[in-house]
Structures are given as C-alpha cells and as structure tokens.
Amino acid sequence: MAISVQNAGDNKTINIVVSQQFDYSLHQSFRDAYRNVDAPGTIFKVDLSKATYMDSSALGMILLLKEHAEKKGGKVIISRPNESVHKILTIANFDQFVTIES
After folding, report:
1. Could you list the residue range(s) of the whole structural domain that residue 32 is in?
2. What strand order describes the sheet that includes 99-101?
3. How far is CA 8 from CA 12, 39, 97, in A?
4. Which one, of 46, 29, 42, lies nearest residue 100 by Cα?
5. Are 22 and 57 in contact (CB under 8 A)?
6. 51: which residues sit within 8 A by CB, 6+ positions away?
7. Count of domains in the chain?
8. Three-state secondary structure along the chain?
9. Could you read off the pLDDT tens digit of each residue along the chain, which spans 102 residues?
10. Which candidate, 92, 89, 91, places its Cα nearest to that of 102?
11. What CATH number is associated with residue 63?
C-alpha cells in the first residue's frame, strides 16, 4: 500500500509514510490517515523517504493536513524527502509553511 499510518506510541505523533508516487490517486487514503485524529497538539510526520515523485495535488493534500492539524493545535513535519521530492518542496516554498527535516 502506498500510504501507511503508525502511531509513534506517545499518543502525540502520527507517522504517515508515503511510498511510490504521491499524487491524486492517494487523496482518499491520505485523508483517511488523519481525518479521525482529534487529539489536541498532535504532530503529523509525513515520511517521504520512500516517495519517488509528488505532484501539485500532493502539495494540496499536505496543506489540507496542515489546516486540520492547526485546528487542533498541532503541526505537520515533512521528514526525509529524497532529492527530487525535496526540490519540488523547495520550488513550492513549502519550507515557509511546514517544517522539513532531511
């Protein structure tokens, strides 16, 4: 499966791992990964280390996740994007919206 979700065990961090291509075909499964998480202050880590590609719809999905997290006092962290995905995030100035960890 291209999306997997893991609770970090601290009940404050949700890891969403995206593998393969991050595009509109993952819209529903990406949304399902976070929509029922209502705990205040939750940190959503989007692990892109296994993503080989992302398009503009993926950027929009991350922004929707950010909106959801901020409503609950949480935040979004993008972790370990590969070089090509990191370039897309940089071109889109995503470092101004979310934390990006190498």
Report:
1. 3-101
2. 3-7, 13-22, 43-54, 75-79, 99-101
3. 8, 14, 23
4. 46
5. no
6. 18, 19, 20, 21, 22, 81, 82, 85
7. 1
8. CCEEEEECCCCCEEEEEEEEEECHHHHHHHHHHHCCCCCCCCEEEEEEEEEEEECHHHHHHHHHHHHHHHHCCCEEEEECCCHHHHHHHHHCCHHHCCEEEC
9. 699 999 887 779 999 999 999 999 999 999 999 999 989 999 999 999 999 999 999 999 999 999 999 999 999 999 999 999 999 999 999 999 999 998
10. 89
11. 3.30.750.24
Return all residues near 14 (Cβ < 8 A) that are at least 6 apart.
5, 6, 7, 8, 33, 34, 37, 42, 43, 44, 45
